[in-house]
């Protein structure tokens, strides 16, 4: 079980308090009427599935109830960084020796 | 050497020292007519049918570890074909029919046992879904029948049908032709059959890059044991499909999750069938060695860790203990995880890709073992002819663009 630090609550809590929200930063097409089938397919169904660092969303359902983003290594499951919704993705190269 | 009564008796008399290796372990050649990436059951079956039915014997199967060492050796060996939609029922029924004759076909005992697969219903919604499956299956020519709780208990005597448990059993759907098979034997049997027909199975050889020519078509694959030229590549890499396809710049609608299973210490025969519960994410059968084989769910997040969280297995064991009270005192011997590639509609992807010469067979998610022979059979046709087999035609990668999804989320027996 993961121990996930919630950036809003400011503490590590067990995974059972959270729901995974899938890949982070998936942008809905801006002009819906102009988006073709390929763009819709990409938005609805195609997701990053890296063997390495993944940016994903978690929601602290049994805590503050808020969504936040997380960088996690999908091989070791180690959480490398968490950041609030709307904040830029942290640059892991600068300082994070993990 | 064929397995026959005569050969078994003759080898017994000579101390069983004369059995040859089951398959060759050749060095990779500089070029092949087709290369299959992934020597699990599906990849080996593909190579076998390429050689046997399409005359394509100059074929290599690349495996980064050892053959059958991924999900083929990690699943819970359950076979059934009671899927809801016509497209899926036809595909899985094709596979089940091949299972029925597979030991004779391969001259290798895959220990297919049609002991029946019973899927439990615990509430009104389950009953409606299960009965819908029963009716759809019978219309599609797939056997499936509805049982009362008493009939379910008669079929599986260790089942707890008390009405006062947390998830009482209110009925069950039974496919009598479903059952189990020995997972390792399937990989070994196909490997032996393919190797005997000239296919090179190259283990400890990881594909590291896919080469393409000026027109964008596949021209070869680079591996940890050197470059191999080929015009056709079939990717059958299960949980690592996204990683391999990314080598050709193709993005896939897949997410990879760890799926767990456990086995108990071996005990005397106590369970004559397979029992599954979608609602409480538990399924169990008994192996011929006597171990209770238990399938758990997937983790909620993408991972390649091949382990999975303990709370997932714990959740399943709580359900198992309630459904089957006699197993409460059994100790668990092993617990492991495999990485499954899950599609948005829980149906596989079999077919062509935007890259000429590159074919993919993936997305079997949490239930690929049962499809092994059918999957290999239709994928071999697809790779050999360059066009989908009629049974595989609905399962294109393009369906996520056209919207013709085959939604089998209710058919999967585990939490996604």
Descriptive account of the structure:
- The complex is a heterodimer of chains A (98) and B (416).
- Chain A contains 1 helix and 6 strands.
- With 98 residues, chain A is mainly beta.
- The longest helix of chain A has 8 residues, at 37-44.
- Chain B has 416 residues and is an alpha/beta fold.
- Chain B is 28% helix and 22% strand.
- Chain B starts with a helix and ends in a 14-residue tail after the last helix.
- Chain A binds chain B through residues 1-2, 15-16, 19-20, 22, 37-38, 40-42, 44-47, 49-51, 54, 56, 72, 74-77, and chain B through 240, 242-243, 251-256, 300-305, 309-311, 341, 344, 400-403.
Question: Which short descriptors sum up this protein?
Answer:
heterodimer; A: 98 residues; mainly beta; two-stranded antiparallel sheet; 6 strands; B: 416 residues; alpha/beta; eight-stranded mixed sheet; six-stranded mixed sheet; 11 helices
The count of β-strands of chain A is 6
- End-to-end Cα distance of chain A, whole Å, is 19 Å
Global shape of chain A? globular
- Which stretches of chain A are poorly predicted, pLDDT < 50 over at least 5 residues? none
H/E topology pattern of chain B = HEHEEHHEHEHEEHEEEEEHEEEEHEEEHH
Percent helix of chain A: under 10%
Reading the helices and strands of chain A in chain order gives EEEHEEE
Counting helices, strands and paired strands, the structural category of chain A is: mainly beta
The average pLDDT value of chain B, as a whole number, equals: 95
- Report the major sheet of chain B: 8 strands, mixed
Radius of gyration of chain B over all CA atoms, rounded: 21 Å
Put simply, the count of helices of chain B is: 11
Runs of chain B with pLDDT <50, length 5+?
none
Instruction: Name the quaternary structure.
Output: heterodimer
User: Looking across the biggest beta sheet of chain B, what order are the strands in?
Assistant: 5-6-4-14-15-16-13-17
Q: State the total count of DSSP E strands of chain B.
A: 19
Major sheet of chain A: size, sense and barrel closure? 4 strands, antiparallel
> Span between N and C termini of chain B?
44 Å
């Amino acid at each position: 079980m993961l121990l996930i630090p919630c950036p809003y609550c400011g503490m590590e809590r067990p995974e059972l308090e959270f729901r995974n929200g899938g890949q982070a930063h998936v942008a809905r097409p801006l002009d819906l009427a102009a988006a073709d089938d390929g763009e819709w397919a990409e938005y609805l169904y195609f997701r990053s599935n890296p063997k390495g660092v993944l940016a994903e969303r978690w929601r602290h359902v049994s805590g503050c109830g808020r969504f936040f983003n997380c960088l996690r290594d999908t091989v070791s499951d180690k959480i490398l960084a968490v950041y609030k919704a709307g904040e830029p993705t942290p640059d892991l190269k600068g300082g994070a020796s993990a | 050497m064929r397995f026959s009564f005569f050969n078994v008796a003759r080898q017994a008399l000579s101390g069983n020292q004369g059995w040859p290796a089951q398959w060759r372990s050749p060095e990779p050649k500089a070029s092949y007519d087709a290369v299959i990436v992934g020597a699990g059951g599906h990849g080996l079956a593909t190579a076998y049918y390429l050689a046997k039915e399409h005359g394509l014997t100059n074929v290599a199967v690349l495996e980064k570890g050892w053959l059958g060492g991924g999900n083929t050796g990690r699943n819970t060996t359950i076979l059934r074909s009671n899927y809801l939609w016509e497209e899926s029922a036809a595909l899985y029924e094709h596979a089940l029919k091949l299972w029925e004759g597979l030991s004779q076909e391969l001259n290798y005992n895959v220990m297919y046992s049609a002991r029946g697969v019973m899927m439990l219903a615990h509430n009104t919604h389950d009953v409606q879904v299960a009965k819908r499956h029963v009716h759809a299956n019978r219309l599609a020519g797939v056997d499936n029948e509805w049982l009362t709780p008493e009939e379910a208990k008669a079929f599986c005597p260790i089942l707890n049908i008390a009405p006062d448990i947390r998830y009482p059993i209110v009925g069950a759907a039974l496919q009598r032709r479903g059952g189990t098979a020995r997972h390792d034997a399937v990989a070994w049997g196909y490997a032996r059959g393919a190797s005997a027909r000239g296919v090179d199975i190259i283990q400890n050889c990881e594909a590291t890059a896919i080469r393409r020519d000026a027109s964008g078509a596949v021209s070869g694959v680079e591996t940890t044991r050197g470059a191999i030229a080929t015009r056709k590549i079939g990717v059958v890499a299960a949980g690592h499909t996204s990683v391999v396809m990314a080598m050709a710049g193709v993005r896939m609608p897949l997410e990879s999750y760890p799926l767990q299973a456990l086995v108990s210490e071996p005990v005397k025969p106590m369970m004559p069938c397979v029992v599954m519960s979608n609602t409480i994410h538990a399924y169990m059968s008994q192996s011929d060695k006597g171990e209770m084989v238990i399938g758990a769910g997937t983790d909620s997040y993408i991972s390649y860790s091949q382990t999975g969280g303990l709370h997932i297995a714990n959740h399943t064991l709580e359900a198992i203990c309630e459904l089957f009270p006699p197993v409460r005192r059994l100790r668990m011997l092993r617990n492991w995880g495999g990485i499954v590639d899950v599609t948005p509609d829980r149906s596989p992807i079999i077919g062509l890709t935007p890259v000429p010469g590159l074919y993919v067979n993936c997305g079997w998610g949490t239930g690929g073992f049962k499809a092994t022979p059918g999957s290999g059979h239709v994928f071999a046709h697809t790779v050999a002819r360059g066009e989908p087999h009629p049974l595989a035609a609905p399962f294109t990668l393009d369906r996520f663009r056209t919207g013709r999804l085959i939604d089998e989320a209710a058919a999967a027996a585990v939490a996604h």
